[in-house]
Structures are given as structure tokens and as C-alpha cells.
Design goal:
The protein contains two helices and no strands. With 67 residues, the chain is mainly alpha-helical.
Length: 67
């Protein structure tokens, strides 16, 4: 006869395995490792975008040759 602790351990292991399998399927399907960005990462990204938006969207003839 299984104890309650043994059953809980089996349930936890089963849920972890299920989660890992679903995560692997999701990563294979999307091709990315999805993760929500933190507020700081979002702020840094927005700051970079504000600083670089004009440079990134200049017409091709106005862009500097970077080698």
C-alpha cells in the first residue's frame, strides 16, 4: 500500500515531467525560448528604441557605411 507522501511525490514528479514535455513542445513549435521580460528589460529596450529609432529608419542613402 502506498503512503500519502509517496503518492504526493509521484504526483509532483508527474506534473514536473508533464510541464517539461509541454515546454519542450512549445519551444519546438515556436522555435524560441519564451520568457516574459522584466520591467527593467522593457525599459532598457524602450530607451534603446528611442535612442536608435531615427538612425535605424533613415533612408538607405543616408546611412553610414559601417564596416
Amino acid at each position: 500500500m502506498l503512503t500519502v507522501d509517496a503518492l504526493l511525490k509521484m504526483r509532483k514528479e508527474g506534473l514536473e515531467q508533464f510541464h517539461n514535455e509541454m515546454k519542450a513542445i512549445d519551444q519546438a513549435y515556436t522555435g524560441v525560448n519564451k520568457r516574459h521580460c522584466t520591467d527593467r528589460e522593457m525599459e532598457e529596450g524602450m530607451n534603446w528604441l528611442e535612442d536608435n529609432w531615427e538612425e535605424q529608419n533613415k533612408p538607405a542613402e543616408d546611412k553610414k557605411d559601417i564596416k
